[in-house]
Design goal:
mainly alpha
Length: 79
């Protein structure tokens, strides 16, 4: 079952949404739903990556900055 959600948008955003809907042949509601789905997926990926990094930090699976910098510099130096 779908729930209704009402949001307010600036007129310029409505115009852009309507133009995109007309150009793509899709309904504005479908475009907004797809945008929200994409946003939620990206945000979840970000949260997962942050959680993984924090877990690595807590478990000591990290390399100190002073060790990484020389490696990066060596990769950038011409041979």
């Amino acid at each position: 079952m779908l729930e209704q959600l009402q949001i307010g948008l600036e007129p310029a955003k409505i115009e852009a949404l309507d133009a995109l809907a007309q150009h793509s042949g899709r309904r504005r509601e479908d475009l907004v739903a797809q945008a929200l789905e994409d946003f939620l997926a990206i945000e979840q990926q970000n949260l997962d990556a942050i959680r993984e990094g924090l877990d690595d930090l807590a478990a000591g699976r990290v390399t100190p900055h002073k060790e990484i910098l020389p490696r990066i510099r060596a990769m950038r130096s011409p041979v």
